[in-house]
Specification:
It is built from 11 helices and 12 strands. The protein is α/β, with parallel strands linked by helices. It folds into 2 domains: about 190 residues, TIM Barrel (Alpha-Beta Barrel), CATH 3.20.20.30; about 100 residues, no CATH class. The strands form 2 sheets. Strands 1, 2, 3, 4, 5, 8, 9, 10, 11 and 12 form a 10-stranded parallel sheet that branches. A two-stranded antiparallel sheet has the order 6-7. The two termini are about 30 Å apart.
């Protein structure tokens, strides 16, 4: 299967797979049932984060979890967002990427990154001071390996001499790449390597990233990517009434926030200054969109337009949100976005 051509406004799903307060085996099964629903509802892709030693991410080996996703879905694309490359030998990362791409028939979306919390890398003995340079070198080795043949690399951190590459990805030249980008400088680098981007933050901040990406592309710079996906993440809670949606969202966000802050508090570090500390603050900062079908549709479309994105990464499952509530929101958004996509295309044509 070749790379799919997405429509004007694309719907995807992002998942921290944070602790829901369930037995972990039950949580995995519940999440896989949701992923099957995302597949049937026609979402473009499912992206899962990688975290370690924290309830903020209960899938520390995202590729292992995604191998189950590959077998439980037919059309849904998927991938890590992102693989923390400093925790992989580049050859191991390359081989896992190839395996997942073939197990899914060419549906892998390859997210790579540095990671947001240095403590997670430190537990594995990674020198934080050199982590960025090491991450860049691993990225370069993986892309080089995608070309096949015999791998040679002589770098600061890795020396690879005459390595026979017996695997290759299903998609050519390689699966679509993804990078988390919350600063204009990161967007320029993503455009240079032909990667798609995922952003977190208010629409006005995301717009700075998408404008920088497009401006760099329009200048003639950057690697080819026929239709890059420029996305933003939003937690989404939909219910029959605003009151019920707020009640569900408040409890779920409190659990998610506890999970997020776990390592910061354990290690005596301040949480990120932009982190909303209440559900109402999360709504005001545009991290969360909550309400009825009609109100959620209006808010998502308005924020997408303001942010200049063509990809909405909806986080339907977080904290202790019941599976039924996540499924209700996914159904509501998938049907609403069919109409919303037409509206957005008409407004920009």
């Amino acid at each position: 299967m070749g790379k799919l051509t997405p429509p004007k406004l694309v719907l995807g799903v992002f998942d921290h797979l944070d602790d829901a307060g369930l037995n972990i085996a039950q949580q995995y099964q519940a999440r896989l049932s949701l992923v099957e629903a995302y597949d049937q509802l026609g979402f473009y892709a499912y992206h899962v984060a990688e975290h370690h030693c924290t309830p903020h991410g209960m899938a520390p080996s995202p590729n292992l979890f995604l191998s189950s996703v590959a077998q439980r879905t037919k059309s849904l694309r998927f991938g890590p967002l992102v693989m923390l490359l400093n925790l992989y030998h580049p050859l191991r990362a390359f081989e896992e990427i190839c395996m997942l791409d073939h197990l899914s028939g060419g549906r892998l979306e390859m997210g790579v990154g540095l990671g947001g919390l240095s403590d997670e890398l430190g537990y594995f003995g990674v020198d934080v001071k050199s982590a960025r340079e090491r991450y860049v070198e691993i990225s370069e080795i993986i892309v080089k390996a995608m070309r096949g043949g015999t791998l040679e690399h002589h770098g600061q951190f890795f020396e690879l001499n005459g390595v026979p590459l017996t695997l290759a990805p299903n998609q050519h030249p390689h699966p679509p790449m993804w990078i988390g980008a919350n600063r204009p400088e990161s967007a320029v680098w993503a455009a240079d390597v032909g990667a798609n981007v995922a952003c977190v933050g208010p629409s006005a901040s995301v717009r700075k990233v998408t404008d920088a990406y497009r401006k760099h592309r329009e200048s003639g710079a950057g690697a080819p990517n026929a239709r890059p996906l420029l996305g933003m993440v939003r937690m989404v809670v939909v219910a029959q009434s605003d009151a019920l949606a707020h009640s569900l969202g408040t409890s779920a966000f409190e659990q998610w926030l506890t999970n997020f802050k776990f390592l910061y508090e354990r290690n005596g570090k301040p949480t990120p200054p932009m982190l909303p500390l209440t559900f109402e603050a999360a709504i005001q900062s545009e991290l969360c969109v909550v309400g009825t079908e009609t109100s959620v549709r209006e808010v998502l479309l308005a924020q997408a337009e303001q942010a200049g994105v063509n990809y909405l990464l909806c986080q339907f499952a977080f904290g202790n949100l019941p599976v039924e509530a996540s499924l209700y929101a996914a159904n509501a958004v998938s049907s609403l976005m069919t109409a919303g996509e037409s509206q957005l295309v008409a407004e920009h044509s």
